[in-house]
Write a structure and sequence with these properties.
- Keywords: Hydrolase.
- The chain has about 300 residues and is α/β, with parallel strands linked by helices.
- It has one domain: Alpha/Beta hydrolase fold, catalytic domain (Rossmann fold, 3-Layer(aba) Sandwich).
- The chain has 16 helices and eight strands.
- The chain has helices at about 45-50, 80-90, 105-115, 130-135, 140-145, 150, 160-165, 170-175, 190-200, 205-215, 215-230, 245-250, 250-260, 275, 280-290, 290-295; strands at about 5-10, 15-20, 25-30, 55, 100-105, 120-125, 235-240, 265-270.
- It has an eight-stranded mixed β-sheet with strand order 1-2-4-3-5-6-7-8, with helices on both faces.
- Helix 2 crosses helix 3.
- The radius of gyration is 18 Å and the shape is globular.
């Protein structure tokens, strides 16, 4: 997996963020979802690296990144804090501006990153989510049954943590295998990585705190943005799975148009895990969305022709 990429760790914003990096050109940050790691991008990252300097990061609490302690209001796992991790990571690599491709929980981090740091984000592509506030406010029985983990993981500690830690692989199989495509999209190597990382001490806590923050502090931040009239102004591409829950229970394009000014989007022939279920269709959509950035590459393939983005 990830031919031509190197694995690094960088200490930013008080935590160690694990990431793989490869390619040259404009910066492209890839953020994964639950209950996975940056490995979700293994089918698309090498091709993206033909056009971009690709940085595939593990969110705090996931993968091989740090797992900070819980706090009373879950601020250590708020999307604002997680967004800052990744802004500082990209700046540390020499990217004051970059684009973002993100799935699931990572897409929620990317939404907050683009709101809090609009000058940093050139283009934003979000996979299989509607805005968090809209999804909570419009929750009905069908959504609650399909996304049961949203309501399980926010229960007070230590109940959900204890149940996940009792059998991490079974938790993965229950969550990932219950989607429309079952476990078929996941290679043995990728699934083994998801199991390994969920078995690491503190992983269950990190996952639960991520969701607890989304059901509390993150909603406060979202409501404050709406009250202040803050919107996403950069080009936004929203993609969702035609066989997934998000498109069935919500109107993703309509919901993104409520909070963003320049939105396009459509369903792909996939379930929830688009990057692993429909990698070729995802690549077509993403490469079509980034034409200006691709044409702006310098002859050397590096912005400005000489700047290096290799970690020191």
């Amino acid at each position: 997996m990830f031919a031509g990429f190197q694995t690094y760790k960088r200490h930013v914003n008080g935590v160690d963020i694990n990431f793989r990096m490869g390619g040259t050109g404009p910066g492209l940050l890839l953020l994964h979802g639950h209950p996975q790691t940056h490995v979700i991008w293994h089918k698309v990252a090498p091709r993206l690296a033909e056009h971009f300097t690709v940085v595939a990061a593990d969110l705090r609490g996931y993968g091989d990144s740090s797992r900070p302690a819980a706090d009373a209001v879950h601020s250590n796992y708020s999307k604002r804090t997680m967004a800052m991790d990744n802004v500082r990571l990209m700046r540390s690599l020499g990217f004051e501006q970059f684009s973002v491709l993100a799935h699931d929980r990572g897409a929620r981090v990317a939404h907050r990153l683009a709101l809090d740091h609009p000058d940093a984000v050139q283009r934003l592509a979000l996979l299989d989510i509607a805005p968090t506030l809209a999804m909570y406010e419009q929750t009905d029985e069908a959504f609650a049954r399909a996304y049961w983990h949203w309501f399980f993981l926010i229960r007070p500690a230590p109940l959900p943590e204890s149940l996940i830690e009792a059998d991490p692989e079974q938790y993965l199989r229950s969550v990932m295998g219950s989607r429309s495509a079952g476990l078929t999209p996941f290679t043995d190597a990728a699934f083994a990585e998801y199991v390994r990382c969920l078995q690491l001490p503190g992983s269950a806590r990190g996952i639960c705190e991520d969701y607890r923050a989304s059901a509390g502090l993150d909603l406060e931040h979202d409501r404050a943005d709406i009250a202040a009239g803050r919107r996403l102004e950069m080009p936004l591409l929203a993609l969702w799975g035609a066989d997934g829950v998000v498109g069935r229970c919500f109107e993703p394009l309509k919901e993104w148009q409520k909070v963003a000014s320049d939105v396009r989007g459509y369903a792909l022939p996939s379930g929830h895990y688009i990057a692993e279920e429909a990698p070729e269709r995802l690549l077509e959509a993403v490469e079509d969305f980034f034409p200006e950035l691709l044409s702006a590459r310098s002859p050397s393939g590096i912005p400005g022709g000489s700047q290096s983005h290799l970690p020191g």
